[in-house]
Amino acid sequence: MRFLPLLAALVLSAGAATAKAPCGGSFNSFVDGLKKEAISKGHSKSTVDKFFASARFDQKTINADRAQGVFQMPFLDFSQRLISQNRIDNGRRKSKQYDAVFRQIERQYGVSRGVLLAFWAFETDYGAFQGNFNTLNSLVTLSHDCRRPDLFRPQVFAALELYERGDFSPTKTTGAWAGEIGMVQMLPADIIENGVDGDGDGEVNLKTSAPDALMSGAQMLSHLGWRKNEPWLQEVDVPQNLDWAKSGLDHQMNARDWAKQGVKPRYGNLPNLPASLLLPQGRKGPAFLAYPNYRVYFEWNKSFVYVTTAAYFATRLEGAPRYDAGNPDPALSGNQMKQLQKKLKARGHDVGKVDGILGKLTRAAVQKEQIRLGLPADAWPTTALLNKL
């Protein structure tokens, strides 16, 4: 199953406006407003007219934007759905095929190859499925839509800049429904800021050149704060008598201090780095130490389940064993999760949107209520917690 349209929506853009962007109303009038703004930014009227001449509203883009149910899946289900032996085998073949490129990336950016291979796999199946949505139509449609215009409106003008450079076609450039382009799916503004000519042909082509895409992805991670040559995620075994209230991304201590608490790595050694104990499905499921680079993933994608799956898959591609799935308590259904979020909001917790997705804010609120109610505070919501609330 192809996940590209579902994953793309949560990618962050560099340069999103802070003020609420104009949206809605007549689509043609909205496009006229974009054209006027483009001219006010210094683009010539003739160029602007040519760029927007083919812009059309795309209902398929809106439909894809609203279809985000996959993120309601718990980590084990989500990761097993995305990670297959075929993707692991293909990743290892790509690692050998582009070994020289990965070695250059590792020297220059300190980004381990597994990290980029995992993004490459999940975003486009190593370039095989890059999306067939007209990029301009998607960006203009999502800018017109009032759900997240601040994110997408700046991307329209970035695409215009790429058009002026000869690197974008209003009628032919295609990609994901949310406007990302190429093998690792980058938005136009990110291409401008982080695009790298990895193959030395004088162009940055993220759709057909794997070296360009990989080098650009590494540059983007570096720009987002990736710490050179440091780990990002490591599976661990945890003692059953651990203070679970210390788990979660809001809590951190040195990995070696975690060792003093009885936390043991399932492979490798524990580094001298700050780490959070991550329990994606509670104390009875798999456990990981998340290092500072893990948090950079959230600058690429906001979904907790996607980030954790991508980070874990990166370790698998570099030889880590399959996780110990354990025997976690059953996950709440989507409707139960929404009920939980409403109850948490009623108690004054910030859980963001009531969407049935167990994200960072909901996890933090769950843990606080578990502490209050005297339950194991592992941030994994259960029917027992729901009933007590």
Automatic annotation (TrEMBL):
Residues 26-314 form the Transglycosylase SLT domain. One of its GO terms (molecular function) is peptidoglycan lytic transglycosylase activity. It holds the Pfam family PG_binding_1. This is Lytic murein transglycosylase. Residues 1-19 form the signal peptide. Residues 333-389 form the Peptidoglycan binding-like domain. NCBIfam families: MltB_2. The keyword Signal applies.
